[in-house]
Specification:
The protein is mainly α. It is built from 9 helices and no strands. The chain has one domain.
Length: about 270
């Protein structure tokens, strides 16, 4: 089910998700209206008690949805930032190799080129599927081996080497942050609370004593559309590398095109 949700176009998943939300809410209204009509003896007392319950529930449910949505978006934003930082540091590392011995520098740049292609073509599809990527590990290990093979003979060479080493360490940190983000997701208990809250909200709306059934269905449907949209966006953003709202390899493609491929073509 989750694979279908993240692999299918938003033009299909969004209408199906929100439309299903609306249909279920309206069915709950239709099912509970006869029960409410039998139970309500004093409409003023019923409305007063229900308004208090809905108001209290709405505050807590609204706060829950807001906090969850903000938390998910922060995870998404931090993942995107990590990918941009990693791509930028690969570019900085590529430039730093030009100050190292020519034979090792050329080999390092070839490794970085292979690394970028591996990240774009293998790592991101793997992360979109929820799997921790391993394809680019080979290039990272090879680059580290070449970096530590550098022998700085002059003070200038030593400065260039230390700069490259610092850039490599920063690159490793960003890469680790990007890989760790593969497992980012809300705990199942949070989703359970959200779905229970949405169900309770639909039931409380159905409890409103409205004589006009069409108006009652319209009220329930409009509220269901909004809550369905919030939950849909939250669910789609929950996995940063999958779904319509996802972090892609665009930053790496730009670095590869503007720096690495451009230099190779000169």
């Amino acid at each position: 089910m989750l694979d279908w949700f993240y692999d299918t176009s938003i033009l299909i998943t969004l209408p199906v998700f929100v439309g299903g939300f609306v249909v279920v809410s309206c069915l709950i209204v239709v099912a509970l209206r006869p029960v409410v009509n039998r139970l309500v003896a004093d409409s003023k007392e019923w409305d007063r008690a229900l308004a208090h319950v809905i108001g209290t529930f709405g505050v807590f449910f609204g706060i829950l949805l807001a906090l969850v949505a903000v938390s998910v978006y922060e995870n998404f934003a931090s993942t995107r930032e990590a990918t941009i930082e990693e791509a930028g540091r690969v570019g900085a590392l590529y430039r730093a190799t030009t100050g190292l011995p020519e034979d090792l520098g050329d080999e390092m740049r070839q490794v970085l080129d292979a690394y970028m292609h591996s990240v774009i073509e293998v790592d991101f599809p793997e992360q979109a599927s929820g799997n921790l990527p391993e394809a680019s590990d080979t290039q990272v290990d090879e680059f580290e081996r070449l970096l530590h093979a550098v022998e700085a003979e002059t003070r200038g060479d030593q400065a260039e080497f230390e700069q490259a080493l610092a850039t490599f360490d920063a690159f490793i940190e960003s890469r680790r942050a990007r890989i760790d983000a593969t497992a980012l997701a809300l705990p199942p208990l949070f989703w359970l609370v959200i779905w229970v809250g949405a169900a309770v909200n639909a039931v409380l709306i159905a409890f409103i004593n409205v004589s006009n059934r069409r108006l009652h269905l319209l009220m329930a449907g409009l509220l269901a559309v909004f809550i369905g949209l919030v939950i849909f966006v939250t669910a789609d953003t929950d996995h940063p590398f999958a779904g319509a709202i996802s972090v892609g390899p665009g930053a790496y493609e730009r670095v590869l095109e503007q720096l690495i491929d451009a230099r190779d073509s000169d």
